Amino acid sequence: MGLGALLLVLTLLLPGRPSSSAFAWTAFRDPAGVTCEALSYNNTSLRCSWEALRPATVRLHLRQKGELGANCSSREVRSGRGPSWVLMDSCPSACSSAAEETPMELEVEAGGNGGQHQRLSRSLLWRDLVKPAAPEGLWAHQEERSGQVRLRWAPPGSWDRPASFFPLRFHLHLEYFGNLDKGLLQDLYSDRLEETTEPLRPHQILRRAKVRCQDPVTGSAWGPWSGWALPSEATPLP
Predict the structure, then answer these.
(1) Which of 13, 42, 85, 237 has the fewest CB atoms within 10 Å around its CB?
(2) Which CATH class, in words, describes the domain spanning 6-129?
(3) Which of 74 and 236 is assigned the larger pLDDT?
(4) In terms of Cα–Cα distance, which of 53, 86, 69, 44 is closest to 123?
């Protein structure tokens, strides 16, 4: 079990309530409760989200683990049923490099209208939380004579520099026109900011393209897709 896994789930027994109903009460749809993400290694906040089964007051406390662990930030949210999220300030002393050794700890307490409580505790390493935002400025162009498709894009604006120290892997998804406008799909993977490719079949016409990215060093989750980019007739500046 990794450090980012759930470490403790505790449902409090309340006076005058049978244990069967107390242990049956849970606030979150996902057993892990709350999931946190960061847009980059140098970001100063975490986006923590959850899916609530029922209305509850959710309190979140983030602190640095260890004997001298400091309290970093706290939030209290009145959550209804469905998805909710909140921004948490990160710990100032948190190391965000691959050599990170001291984790942060997130404590979550959910309270129901009837006095029920659920508590969860998770250890978090920053490198496990990084999920890059969508790449920007995707440009696509198909050469009229050769049919080659040229693509260019930029890293997310929130991503760390220099790129040589904070590399990204990109996943491009291309859709071509087909019979009855049913798209034919092509997937490309790249460590660069531009690619040239051939259509899947001769004389295919590019319909649209999109791109997403991940951190290849830590094998982070893939970030969200960019919006669809339509083929451009103009040639971009170098």
Answers:
(1) 237
(2) mainly beta
(3) 74
(4) 69
